[in-house]
Design a protein that fits this description.
The chain is an alpha+beta fold and 528 residues long. It is built from 17 helices and 19 strands. Belongs to the bacterial solute-binding protein 5 family.
C-alpha cells in the first residue's frame, strides 16, 4: 500500500477510544527516607486492582517485589533458576520435581514451609479460586512434603512447560489464605489490603486508582532493601506517565516508542529497548460463527498491509509474525506469508459467501490496549478491512472489563479482539491460548479454539522434554497455526522503558507479562 493511501485510510478511519479507567495521577505525598516512585505495573498507565497473582495476566515486574515464585527466569530470560527454591531437581522420567526450599519468613513473621507450597499449588490448580493457572497445573498428580524444607511435585505425564509455568505461580501463605472460602478468594479484599509475601518489600497500602505503597522488609533473606519505600503510581494514560517522568515525579515508566524517542540523548534518562516476546494478533471468537470458514480468516490476513503498518506506525520496530512466534529456530520454512492482496481477500470472501454469513453488519472489535499507537494501528486495520467488505468497530476497554467479557459466555460482545500472547522465552506459553483443554474457566483459550490437529501438535510439543527434539515439535505447531489460522498473527513489537539517571542498580527487561525475572529490587537505589 502506498504511504499516501495508507495515510488517507488512517485519517478516514480515525476513532475515539473510550477512556480506559478513572485513574488519577495525584502526586504521592513525600515520604521519609529514600523512596522510589514509578509506573512499574502492566504498561503505560498501569492496571489498578492487579493484586492477585493467581488471576494476573501481566504485571509480574511489580508483583515480584513482594510475592515470589519457587523458580524464576534469569535477567536475560535465558534459563530458570531457584527463587524460593534454593535448589530443584527433575527425575529421569520427568514426572517428579523436588524442590529444596530457602529458609525464610513471611512478612508477618510466620515461617515459609513446604506446607505453603502444597497449599499454593492446590489452590492455584483449583478453578474455583479463579486461578488462570488451573489448566496449566492440571498435570499435577500429587504434592508431597517430606519435611518443612522439601516439596515433591509429581505429574501424571511429562510437561515441558511445567517449570516455566511455576515461574509465575507466586507462593502464598497457607496460614492467611486457608481461612478464606476458595470460591470467594478471587474477589477477596485481602489482596489489596493486607497481602503477605516473602519478597524484599512488604505491603503498606493501596490508595484506590492512585498508587500502591510498599515498605522495605527488614527481614528479607537477601538483605534489607537500600530504599525505604517503593511506590507504584497509576496514570490516566501513557502521556501522563511520561509527563510525570519528565517532571521528576517518578523515576521509571513503560513508554510508547514515540514517547521513548523524546528522551534520546538526554543525560538524565536511559532508554531500555527490547523484544516484547508478545505476538499481537487479531483473535477470531470461534463460537461467534462468522469465522468458521477458513477462507474468511485467510481473507482477513490478505486484507491487511502488515508491512506498511510496521513501517509507518511502529517505525520499523516490530517483526512480522506468521504463526505464534518469531524465534528463527521455531519457525519452519515454507510458511504462507499471507502477502497483502486485497483483491485476493475479496475473492476469498465471495467464495465463502460472506454476504450471507455477515455482509456489512458491524462487528465489535475489542481490545484492552489503551494507547495512541494501538488506536492508530486498529484504525488502519479497520480501514483496510472495510476496503474488502469487512466492517469492524474498535472498542477499547480497561483490562478488568475486557477479561470479564472474554472469559465469560458473552459471545455476541466479542466476535473479534486485538490482543497479545506470550511467544517466549518458552514457546509452551502458546499452549494456554490455543489448546482446546484451556478454554475458560479452565485456562486462557479465550477465542475458544477447538482445532484437533493443532491441539494434538501442542500436546506433542508439551510432552517433549528433550531439548534436542523439542524445536521440531514446536515447528509443527507453527505450521498448524499458519495453515489453519486459529487467529491472525500480526507482529512482535519492541517494548520500551525509560529510567531516570537517579536510579542506581535498577534492572528492567521487557519480559512477557512483566516476567518475573531476576531484578533484585532489594538492590535498587536512588541518588539524592
Amino acid at each position: 500500500m502506498h504511504r499516501r493511501n495508507f495515510g488517507r485510510l488512517l485519517a478516514a478511519a480515525a476513532f475515539a477510544f473510550a477512556s480506559a479507567t478513572a485513574m488519577v495521577s495525584t502526586p504521592v505525598l513525600a515520604q521519609e527516607g529514600k523512596t522510589i516512585v514509578g509506573g512499574f505495573d502492566v504498561g503505560p498507565g498501569g492496571f489498578p486492582g492487579n493484586f492477585n497473582p493467581l488471576t494476573a495476566t501481566a504485571g509480574f515486574t511489580w508483583l515480584n517485589t513482594y510475592f515470589e515464585p519457587l523458580v524464576i527466569y534469569t535477567s536475560d530470560l535465558s534459563k530458570l533458576e531457584g527463587a524460593l527454591a534454593s535448589d530443584f531437581a527433575v527425575s529421569e522420567d520427568s514426572l517428579s520435581y523436588t524442590f529444596k526450599l530457602v529458609d525464610t519468613k513471611w512478612h508477618d513473621g510466620e515461617p515459609f514451609t513446604s506446607a505453603d507450597v502444597k497449599f499454593t499449588l492446590e489452590f492455584a490448580k483449583n478453578a474455583d479460586s479463579g486461578s488462570i493457572f488451573a489448566a496449566r497445573l492440571a498435570d499435577i498428580a500429587s504434592i508431597e512434603t517430606p519435611d518443612e524444607h522439601t516439596a515433591v511435585v509429581k505429574l501424571s505425564k511429562p510437561n515441558s512447560a511445567f517449570l516455566s509455568v511455576l515461574s509465575q505461580v507466586m507462593m502464598l501463605p497457607e496460614h492467611a489464605l486457608s481461612k478464606i472460602d476458595i470460591k470467594e478468594a478471587a474477589k477477596s479484599p485481602w489482596w489489596s489490603t493486607k497481602p503477605v509475601g516473602t519478597g524484599p518489600f512488604k505491603f503498606v497500602k493501596y490508595v484506590s486508582d492512585q498508587y500502591v505503597e510498599m515498605a522495605a522488609y527488614d527481614g528479607y533473606r537477601g538483605g534489607k532493601p537500600k530504599v525505604d519505600r517503593l511506590i507504584n503510581r497509576y496514570f490516566a494514560n501513557a502521556a501522563a506517565a511520561v509527563s510525570a517522568l519528565s517532571a521528576g515525579e517518578i523515576q521509571f515508566t513503560f513508554a510508547e516508542p514515540d514517547d521513548a524517542k523524546t528522551f534520546k540523548g538526554k543525560d538524565d534518562f536511559r532508554i531500555i529497548e527490547g523484544d516484547s516476546y508478545v505476538v499481537n494478533y487479531i483473535g477470531f471468537n470461534h463460537k461467534a460463527g462468522i469465522w468458521n470458514d477458513l477462507r474468511v480468516r485467510q481473507a482477513v490476513m490478505h486484507a491487511i498491509d502488515r508491512n506498511a503498518i510496521i513501517s509507518s506506525l511502529f517505525g520499523g520496530a516490530a517483526k512480522l509474525a506468521n504463526c505464534g512466534y518469531v524465534v528463527p529456530r521455531l519457525v519452519p520454512n515454507g510458511l504462507d506469508d499471507y502477502a497483502y492482496d486485497p483483491q485476493k481477500a475479496k475473492e476469498l470472501l465471495d467464495e465463502a459467501g460472506w454476504d450471507d454469513i455477515n455482509g456489512d453488519k458491524a462487528i465489535p472489535w475489542l481490545t484492552y490496549y489503551n494507547t495512541p499507537q494501538v488506536a492508530n494501528v486498529m484504525a488502519a486495520i479497520q480501514a483496510m478491512l472495510a476496503q474488502v467488505g469487512i466492517n469492524v468497530v474498535p472498542r477499547a476497554l480497561d483490562v478488568p472489563s475486557y477479561n470479564g467479557i472474554v472469559r465469560s459466555e458473552k459471545w455476541q460482545e466479542f466476535p473479534l479482539v486485538y490482543a497479545g500472547l506470550q511467544n517466549g522465552p518458552n514457546p509452551a506459553s502458546l499452549n494456554i491460548g490455543l489448546n482446546a483443554a484451556q478454554i475458560p474457566p479452565a485456562g486462557n483459550n479465550i477465542m475458544r479454539v477447538e482445532m484437533p490437529q493443532l491441539t494434538d501438535a501442542l500436546n506433542t510439543a508439551m510432552a517433549e522434554t528433550d531439548p534436542a527434539k523439542a524445536d521440531a515439535k514446536w515447528q509443527q505447531v507453527c505450521k498448524e497455526m499458519n495453515a489453519e489460522l486459529p487467529w491472525s498473527p500480526m507482529w512482535v513489537a519492541s517494548r520500551y522503558g525509560v529510567v531516570s539517571s537517579k536510579l542506581k542498580d535498577f534492572f528492567w527487561t521487557p519480559a512477557p507479562a512483566g516476567g518475573p525475572f531476576v531484578s533484585h529490587p532489594e538492590k535498587w537505589d536512588i541518588a539524592p
